[in-house]
Design goal:
Shape: globular
CATH class of the largest domain: Alpha Beta
Number of helices: 10
CATH superfamily of the largest domain: Hsp33 domain
Order of helices and strands: EEHHEEEHEEHEEHHHHEEHHEE
Strand content: 25-35%
């Protein structure tokens, strides 16, 4: 645990993938800062997506990992976006043990049109649809699902809407992704991605300071509803104002550590950072899991899956691993 006195001695290690928890007790705020480097690059290198899709998936990965860290995950958390946009599906899931993985499905021609348009907000690739968060904490707990509509805005905006509707905890989120190009004399330039995010939540001990108006019965959060909300707490107003000063380049600056950034924001109130939690990428696919899925298929569906070589080939959408099975393994007794 680190406080204002020795925070200046800390620096951001290159290639580190971590979540840094912090607290500003004077303002009743807790939060997380996530930094993704090597793990993110391993995932994106396998997929070879267009840059705009890679950037969107990187944002989703940072958001998912922050969400998982905020709920003390013991099982699995999945963030899934489905839309009518150029990117029709976006999935990131993270397990308490085993790391995170990510994948996307998209229309190549529509993504190319987006890239040619010069649009910089990659959230627009999602169009209209639904963003869902699913938490599975274990065998003996109920699965939780929360949903929010997508309307072509940023993932940050969708996340804020989710917390307003589902959690009703004052929350502020920032996401940033950068491309890093390095060149050594006589060698071709190397390319890497970095994603960072910051999430702060207002969690006062007094429940009265969290008082919020119930959501309308029709679920429509319009100007009338917003006008009737209680006045926000002064401490939370201060935090929001500070978070809104954070520029994208500060979140992804390799020379500016997460600790230094937090100190810049909250040194007057006093910020406390805790031990960072490492983040790894990893896929949970396995031959027995794929086999179990194939066993549930009808004979007709299995027959349609047989290749010209007489095998059944299955490729994991997350890690690209290829599995080959003999159709005879799944023959149903007559």
């Amino acid at each position: 645990m680190t406080d204002n006195q020795n925070i200046d001695a800390l620096s951001r290690a290159p290639g580190r993938d971590e979540v840094l928890p912090f607290a500003v007790e004077a303002l009743d705020v807790r939060g997380r800062v996530v930094t993704l480097n090597d793990s993110l690059n391993d995932i994106l290198a396998r997929h070879q997506y267009p840059k705009s899709v890679s950037k969107l998936l990187a944002q989703a990965a940072a958001l998912t990992i922050m969400l998982a860290a905020s709920v003390k995950l013991e099982g699995r958390l999945t963030l899934q976006a489905q839309s009518d946009g150029a990117v029709s599906l976006l999935v990131v899931d993270i397990r308490a043990e085993g790391g995170y993985r990510a994948t996307a499905k998209f229309d190549e021609s529509r993504v190319a049109e987006f890239d040619a348009s010069g649009e910089t907000e990659v959230g627009a690739l999602l169009g209209k649809g639904t963003l869902a968060m699913t938490i599975e904490q274990g065998v003996y707990t109920n699965r939780y699902q929360g949903f929010v509509a997508l309307d072509g805005g940023s993932l940050e905006e969708a996340a804020h809407e989710y917390f307003l509707r589902s959690e009703q905890i004052p929350t502020r989120i920032r996401l940033a992704v950068s491309e890093v190009l390095t060149r050594t004399d006589g060698e071709a330039a190397s390319h890497a991605w970095q994603a960072s995010g910051m999430m702060v939540q207002f969690l006062p001990q007094s429940s009265e300071r969290l008082a919020q108006r119930d959501l309308p019965g029709d679920g429509v959060v319009d100007e009338t509803y917003l006008a009737g909300l209680p006045d926000e707490d002064d401490a939370w107003n201060e935090v929001r104002a500070l978070i809104d000063t954070v520029a994208d380049h500060e979140l992804v600056d390799p020379e500016l550590s997460s600790q230094r950034l937090l100190y810049r924001l909250f040194h007057e109130s006093g910020v406390r950072v805790f031990d960072p939690e490492s983040v790894e990428e990893g896929c949970s696919c396995a031959p027995e899991k794929v086999s179990n899925v194939l066993e549930q298929l009808s004979p007709e569906a299995l027959a349609e899956s047989i290749t010209d070589k007489g095998d059944i080939d299955v490729k994991c959408d997350f890690c690209g691993r290829q599995y080959t099975f003999d159709p005879k393994e799944f023959a149903k007794p007559s």
